[in-house]
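Case 710 in the screening queue. Each case pairs one protein sequence with one candidate compound; here the compound is magnesium ion. For every case the pipeline is the same: read the inputs, emit a complex structure as tokens, and attach any notable structural observations.

Predict complex for case 710.
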Amino acid sequence: MSFDTKHIRNVVLLGHPGAGKTTFAETMLFESKTIGRRGKVEEGNTVSDYTDIEHERGNSIFSTLLHDTWKESKINVIDTPGFDDFVGEVVSSLKVADTAVMLLNAKSGVEVGTELIWEYIERFKAPTIFVINQLDHEKADYDTTLEQARNRFGHRVIPIQYPLNAGTGFNTIVDVLRMTTYVFPAGGGKPEKKPIPDSEKDRALAMHNALVEAAAENEEGLMERFFEQGTLSEEDLAMGLRIAIANQQIFPVFCCSSTNNMGSGRIMGFINDVCPSPAERPAAELEGGGTLACDPAGDTTVFIYKTVTEPKVGTVSYFKIYSGVLRAGDELVNANNRTAERFGQLYISNGKDREPVNELRAGDIGVTVKLKNTHTNQTLNPKGNDRRIEPMHFPDPRVTVAVQPPNKNDMEKLMKALHAIAEEDPTLILEQSQTLKQTLLHGQGQLHLEIVKNRVERTQGVTMDFIRPRIAYRETITKMANTMYRHKKQTGGAGQFAEVHMRIEPFHEGMPNPSELTVKNTEIDNLPWGGKLAYLWCIVGGSIDAKFSSAIKKGIMSKMEEGPLTGSYCQDIRVSIFDGKMHPVDSNDMAFMLASIQAFREAFTNAGPQLLEPIYNLEILCSDDVMGDVMGDLQTRRAIILGMDSDGHYQKIIARAPLAELYMYSSTLRSLTQGRAKFSLKFSEYSPVPNDIQQKLIEAHKAELAEAHS
Ligand SMILES: Nc1nc2c(ncn2[C@@H]2O[C@H](COP(=O)(O)OP(=O)(O)O)[C@@H](O)[C@H]2O)c(=O)[nH]1
Ligand SMILES: [Mg+2]
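Case 710 output:
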């Protein structure tokens, strides 16, 4: 059966790992009678966590598409992993969802994962409801959790429910929207509705009025009626809430115990009654400008938000229909690469179970298989229409490892496997680094990379080792040096002769011409790896013919590419060629190039050579109690603290540190803080390596060369 756009609700479950998203999803499916038995995360039998890796780890790694029906609505539910290693899954799920459901754990309140995800909720301007879960836990603390949420996310966080008896015996919720009390039977499920007890009437009424006022606030008509009548009719209240939620003016708060199956029915009811349908969200933005309204009568536009490869099946593509109707058998054209694709079968999905359907309408989310050449972030339309939904933007990688197979012969196989995974996972970047002569994997965290490794080994049968990536050092000089070099070879017939006199200096923008030299020609090149080479031709009186200038420069460039200290790129150097000698027969380009290489090497060594290393800006957010440990650890990493800022019960640390000291920082930080910190990383600049470390690096390079030549 196919659902009308106005009866579709797309929700994404978000929250810190362990908040109870997967368990909550399970109770939604159970309460809506989509499944007959509730699985448990611990027993590895939930609908959402269905992969082997998830069973082994005991938590979600991938986003999972589920669906159920509640009253008139089909609710598509995307369960997401909470770890920031898998933030890509949060981004893609938020892209296609119309309402975010943020789960808070009543025993731990607002956590680092909550904070991280909030950034994305704001970025996507997603209508959001909060669910305070685990109210049955002996340490459940509703008031503190609510207070933290209001402190962090503002007064738009407004409770619709509060628990009467949070803790081990939890079974009662006061609902201040309906002004009723829900009392659940022992096994959960459908609650009994009772009047609000006298002792709670004042509190409930005050909360009800706050809710009504907030709902009226953003609509002039409602505000007037509110002032006239002192309250709002149920219809007006529902309308006010709809508008306020769609516009992110209210983030309502609900109560729940997922394991005891208490509360999910009311939340699904609210999603059905009040949360926006896909057509009630702002029109989708198109790449290159313009927007596309979610209209079932329009041309069909399908956006792929996720692809995975499944054994036996091949490519599985998850999509949202942004406009029109998609029918099984339809042929559409990929607007990104012009491939014609047939949607042979359409499915709706509950984890690993897929059910075929004949058609899906604008706003709905579905699955298809066996598309030939269509990947995440691409859009398909009928032939002749090439609109593209604005693609998703994923965060920059935060960890890098070099990979190699234990057996060198497996390299090709490994690359193929990694390519396939990188194609599915936009947060994984595979790089063949010419500079470092290593294959690099950039990801969101060590856990992310471990999962990739696990998948490669399991599905492709290739093993791989993670090794520390080399660091892309740079070389430069700190003072001026003059040198001359004579290249002379007499072998039988024609000989080789060239003599070059050069001066090298540190280059900086706008520096005056060198004293005592007459500059005939200046070339300033931007180097492909950053920094500059200034090349000055200062030959007067023709001691070297100008035709050899480019050979001399070529010699210099060859050393700039492979610096004299450690073989790294050189940058920000000015070379002036001011004298030399030629031989009428034996001088040629080759001779001048060789002379120039030697002259440069010698001059460089005498010019206070300095290694530079990449420095990164770090931003760390951690809870108060782990701040000391985080700072202590930073001190062992040659980090410089630039600033600190406290933000609720969180501390923000801004620091700079050399990349060489940040290998696997994500996992250190996680174990140091038990997951109560997050960080981001951005390249800042190159800066000088301390002397003792420079000496060690030079020695290591010498040893490497000696080994290569032995
Ligand atoms: N006591 C209690 N435990 C819960 C509740 N919801 C989930 N849990 C437990 O919390 C753990 C994490 O749950 P899970 O659904 O995997 O959390 P997720 O990481 O947010 O998907 C599991 O051991 C669940 O059994 C709840 O409402 N009450
Ligand atoms: Mg989960």
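Case 710 observations:
- The longest helix spans residues 198-217.
- The chain has five domains: 5-280, 284-381, 399-467, 475-607, 612-692.
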